[in-house]
Amino acid sequence: MNELRVFCPATIANVACGFDVLGLCLDHIGDEMVVRKTDNGKLSISRIEGQDLPFEADNNVAGVAAKALLEALGSEQGFDIEIYKKIKPGSGIGSSAASSAGAVFAVNKLLGEPFSLQELIPFAMEGEKLASGALHADNVAPALLGGFSLVRSYDPLDVIKLHSPSQLYASIIHPQIEVKTADARSVLKQSVPLKKAITQWGNVGGLVSGLYTEDYDLIGRSLHDVIVEPLRSLLIPRFNQVKQAAAKAGALGSGISGSGPSIFALSKGEQTAKKVAEAMGQVYSDSGVDFDLHVSRISHKGIHPIISNTP
Ligand code: HSE
Q1: Are strands 43-49 and 78-84 parallel, antiparallel or unpaired?
Q2: What is the Å distance from ligand 1's center to 133 Cα?
Q3: Mean pLDDT value of segment 92-109
Q4: pLDDT over 70, % of the chain
Q5: Where in the chain is the domain with CATH 3.30.70.890?
Q6: 21 C-alpha vs ligand 1 centroid, how far in Å?
Q7: Sign of the alpha-carbon torsion through 274, 255, 262, 154
Q8: Tens digit of pLDDT for each residue in 116-125?
Q9: Quick check: 311 pLDDT over 70?
Q10: Sign of the C-alpha dihedral, residues 168, 243, 179, 197?
């Protein structure tokens, strides 16, 4: 196999209470990427469609992530990457993660899978570091593994794929303003009062338990973030109104998707999720801010090949 086309899904990081540790994989929202072997021993990016992003491999998250993998292997194999972006950078649904994780997934497959999906996570994190300055795994892990994932520890890295209930759907509104992850991280405080930490880790435990027991009410009760959301929500117009509208339309809970500006809500069932998306959209309809709406189930499949080309 010399060439691979892959689908690179969007992801929701943090999932309210789990800053930097929880993430989930969306279904049909995502980029495509074509990776092929070349004979010149170089890593190149020959085509980028949909967004204006750097072509130099060292300045592009896909290039940096793929290079980290090749260096770990000591491989001199050349690769060329084509990126077809549908996820807008700075949207909060894992644009850089889709490219970083997509590149390492495809390169690894074309090399005969020397690494497991779990082992690819640290390479993909190098792309995230280029994008935001932070080595966070809560987008790249669900993009690679599918479903929900929990980063139990960063040092050493320990990522667990969690159970996700089949009736759980996400509604997402993406206001067309850009919030850079690095900026959204710079507004955070470096220390957390114990009282807030207690609330937060109670909610993380409750959410994980709710996922396994398919207890949708418990999932809803746990979707609260008392640490990050109060600071970051100030960067997102009409945030509280969107949350209220989602709750009124039947959502289990809601929060900022990743570092924003997208806002997500989780619901039981697709019909409710559609109503929730509509209600979220209505909040923005007279705001003068353009927006995209998405409804997606939680995808069990992470990045996956679409077409493979065997010579
Ligand atoms: N956990 C990261 C953050 C996700 O919130 O900064 C960025 O998408």
Answers
A1: parallel
A2: 11
A3: 97
A4: 98
A5: 168-297
A6: 9
A7: negative
A8: 999 999 999 9
A9: no
A10: negative
pLDDT at 267 over 50: yes
Sequence-ordered list of residues with C-beta below 8 angstroms from that of 183, at least 6 positions apart, any chain: 235
- What's domain 3-162+301-305's architecture? 2-Layer Sandwich (3.30)
Which atom of ligand 1 is the closest one to the Cα of 20? 1
The one catalytic residue among 181, 229, 270, 278: 181
pLDDT band of residue 270 (cuts 50, 70, 90) is: very high
pLDDT-based confidence at residue 310 (cuts at 50, 70, 90): very low
Residues of the chain with CATH 3.30.230.10: 3-162+301-305
Q: What's CA 116's distance to the chain center, in Å?
A: 20
128 carries an active-site annotation: yes
> Which pLDDT does position 77 carry in this prediction?
97
pLDDT given for residue 146 in this prediction = 98
Q: Are 144 and 101 in contact (CB under 8 A)?
A: yes
91 lines ligand 1 (CB under 6 A): no
- Is 180:258 a contact under the CB 8 Å cutoff? no
- Which long-range CB contacts under 8 A does 305-310 form with residues at least 24 apart? 305/4, 305/5, 305/6, 305/7, 305/106, 305/109, 306/5, 306/6, 306/7, 306/32, 307/5, 308/1, 308/3, 308/4, 308/5, 309/1, 309/2, 309/3, 309/4, 309/36, 310/1, 310/2
Region 186-202 average pLDDT: 97
Q: For the domain made up of 168-297, give the CATH fold.
A: Alpha-Beta Plaits (3.30.70)
